[in-house]
């Protein structure tokens, strides 16, 4: 196994970074561009270095809502576990307010069509204080997931100083794998 460093006798070893999970869609487009630029400038400096990355593309809003929706039991379980763990991590008063009281929170899911992202929140069902005052009905952002078009992905890749070498898209056009490499300018 090579660490990717130069070996005088064998030449230069290129690297391929694999990122299948589509978690890049949890970043804003500007963050994606910055991340890809820094990945290639700081860690993948050989001309043949590549990244194979999975990206969600789903444009079917009903399908997205069904996958992340409020009636999806695993999402509710995830949220309750996050509340309990937050209480454990913060300790003290936060533990008293949060731990064992996950029922005082509810999961909320929203599709933001303007930014093409799905957002997930927890909403307090009652007044309480956890480091800051939380009002009944207030939302706390858990995360979001962008669902970009192929054109948006192409634009971000280009703005990162990279180019798409190859694309594999699954039959439903919900996600793709992109093989990216530095642009030769």
UniProtKB/TrEMBL annotation:
Signal peptide: none
Gene3D superfamilies: Vaccinia Virus protein VP39
GO molecular-function terms, A-Z: methyltransferase activity
InterPro entries: EgtD_Methyltrsf_superfamily, MeTrfase_dom, SAM-dependent_MTases_sf
Record-annotated Histidine-specific methyltransferase SAM-dependent domain positions: 12-181
Keyword annotations from UniProtKB, A to Z: Methyltransferase, Transferase
One Pfam family from the record: Methyltransf_33
Record GO biological process: methylation
Protein name per its UniProtKB record: Histidine-specific methyltransferase SAM-dependent domain-containing protein
Source organism: Lepidopterella palustris CBS 459.81
């Amino acid at each position: 196994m090579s660490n990717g460093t130069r070996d005088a006798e064998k030449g230069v070893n290129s690297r391929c970074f694999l990122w299948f999970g589509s978690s890049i869609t949890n970043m804003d487009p500007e963050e994606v561009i910055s991340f890809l630029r820094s990945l290639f400038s700081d860690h993948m400096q050989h001309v043949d270095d590549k990244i194979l990355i999975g990206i969600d593309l789903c444009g079917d809003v009903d399908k997205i809502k069904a996958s992340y929706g409020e009636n999806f039991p695993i999402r509710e379980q995830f949220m309750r576990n996050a509340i309990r763990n937050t209480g454990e991590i913060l300790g003290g008063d936060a533990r008293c307010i949060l731990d064992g009281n996950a029922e005082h929170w509810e999961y909320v899911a929203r599709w933001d069509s303007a930014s093409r992202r799905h957002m997930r929140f927890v909403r307090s069902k009652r007044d309480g204080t956890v480091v800051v005052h939380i009002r009944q009905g207030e939302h706390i952002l858990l995360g979001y997931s962008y669902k970009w078009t192929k054109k948006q992905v192409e634009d971000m890749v280009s703005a990162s100083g990279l180019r798409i070498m190859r694309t594999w898209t699954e039959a439903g056009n919900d996600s793709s794998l992109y093989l990216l490499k530095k642009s030769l300018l």
